[in-house]
Amino acid sequence: MIKSYLNHISYYLPKKVLTNKELSEEFPDWSIEKIATKIGIDERHIAAEDEFSSDMGVQAAEKLFEESEINKSEVDFLLFCTQSPDYFLPTTACTIQDRLNLRKNIGALDFNLGCSGFIYGLSIAKGLIAAGIASNVLLICAETYSKFLNRGDKGNRTIFGDAASACMISNKKAVNGAEILQFQLGTDGKGAENLIVKEGAMRNPKKVNSNTEDDYGNVHSGRDLYMNGPEIFNFTSKNIPDLIQNTLVKNNLSKTEISHYVFHQANKYMLNHLRKKIEIPEDKFHVRMNFCGNTVSSTIQIALKELKQEGVIKKDEQVLIAGFGVGYSWGATVLQF
Amino acid sequence: MEEFIEHFAEQFDETERSEFSASTEFKELDEWDSMLALTIIAMVDEEYDKTINGDDIKAAKTIEDLYKIVENK
What we know:
The complex is a heterodimer.
Chain A: E1 5-12, E2 16-19, H1 20-26, H2 32-39, E3 43-46, H3 53-67, E4 77-81, H4 92-99, E5 107-111, H5 117-130, E6 136-143, H6 154-159, E7 163-170, E8 178-187, E9 195-197, E10 212-213, E11 219-220, E12 225-227, H7 229-250, E13 260-263, H8 268-278, H9 299-309, E14 318-325, E15 329-336
Parallel strand pairs in A: 4-5, 4-6, 13-14
Antiparallel strand pairs in A: 1-7, 1-8, 2-3, 6-7, 8-15, 9-12, 10-11, 14-15
Helix pairs in contact in A: 7-8
Chain B: H1 2-10, H2 34-48, H3 54-59, H4 63-71
C-alpha cells in the first residue's frame, strides 16, 4: 500500500480577540476567571462580521504555502471541513480552489464534521493516496462557531473560538513529516440532539427567534448552537477510553509506546478527566488551547504545530491523536514522526 | 452518605465546608453554576463509577436526593 504522510501544518486565527475580562464585563455574575482557569482558556479569536470559514481557510492555506516548501501546483486534491459553509451550494472547496489558484485538474470536496473533522480528513486523504487517486492532498479545516452562538450564551462563548488550519498529506515524507498509521473510527447518531443548530437548514428552514434560558442562565434560540454539556461530557467519558484502547490494538502498540497524546482540545477540565480515566501520565498528555479556545476541527492541528515548535514532539516519536464530538462522531490514529 | 457529601463539597472553591449537609439545596448556593454541575458529574464517574446526567441534577433538590439517585444507578 502507498504510505501517507502528514507533512506540514499551518493555522490562522482571526484578528479579533475576546478576552476573559471582556466576558466578565458583559456577564458580571459569571465567575469567568474561575471557570476559565478550570477549562484552560484565556482568550479566543472571533471571525470578523464579514469573515467566513472560506476566508479563514484561504488564509491558513496561504500561510501553509509560505511556511513550507510546498508549491501549490503540487496539490491534486482539496478537502475542506466545515459546518459553517458560505452557501448551501456551491461546495466551498470549489470556491477555494479558485481563490487559491489551485490547478483545475484536481478533485475538491467539502465534508461536514466538527471536532472529529481532522481525523476523518486524514482518513479520507490517506484513502485517496493509498488508492493512487491523489498524491498531495490539501486538507483545510475552518470553523466559525461564533456566528452560531447567541450573545447571551456565556457558557459556549467562553469555550469556543474561531480558527482555520491547513495541512498537506502526501505520498512522500517531508523532513518534519509523520506517517499516518491505522485509524479507529466511530459514530452514534443518537447524540445528534445534544450538539445541534436546529434551524436554518431544510428541516426547520423558518427561523423562529424565540430565546430560551437554560437552568444556568445561558440563552439560545433554535437558530443558535445548542450544546448539552453534561451529555457531551458523558459521551466522551463513555466512548473515548475504548477509542484509545482500540486505536492502540489496531496499531499493535501499547499505551507506553506512545510518546504523546494529543486529543481534540475541547476544554482542559474534560481532557484531564479523560486523561485520568485512561491513565495517561501527565507529561505525555498535552493541552494547548489557552490562546484560542476550542476551535472545533482545528484544535489538534494547532496543538500539534505548537508542540512541534516547542520541540516537545521529536523525530521517531509516536503520537496518538483523537477527535470526538458533534454527531456524535469520533476517531483516532497514530502519527509516526 | 458522609463520604458523598465530602466529595460533593470538595468540588466547591468558595463555599465553606460547613454549609454542606444532606439537606443542603445545592442549586441555591451562590457558587453553583454549569461548571460545577459538570464537576459533580465527573466526581460521580471517578469516585462511584456511575453516570449521572443533567436531568438527574435537575431532579435533585438536596445533596441527599442526588446521593439516592447515584445509589440507584
